[in-house]
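Review form for a predicted model. The reviewer records the input and the model, then writes brief findings.
Reviewer: anonymous (R2)
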Amino acid sequence: MSETRPQLDENLVRLFEDAHAPLPPEAFLELFERRAARAWRARFSLQVAGICLLAVIAALIAPYAIQGSLALSRDVSAGLSSVGLAMMSPAGWAGSLLLGAWVLRRCHVFDP
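Model under review:
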């Protein structure tokens, strides 16, 4: 029995072998390092741009935040003077004792 093998195109075989040939290790590492450095630079530049954007936003918001903080502290200090007067009364003492006992109970101080 005679076996006939089909003839392969030599150019096609050569192209196939060249396409599947592994890259030399030096070229692969160089390509990998170049891509990694490019990705690091892109990520770093995005981080710097984000920080600059946050700094600009903070600079624009800062005067309003400071103004609100000063108004809040003025209102709290005005309210604390009346709370201080209320705490000096017998009802204030009793209320503060009840509040303190409730806080200690919530913190499980009395639990064995």
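Findings: Residues 11-80 form one domain.
Further findings: The chain has a mean pLDDT of 85.
Recommendation: see findings above.
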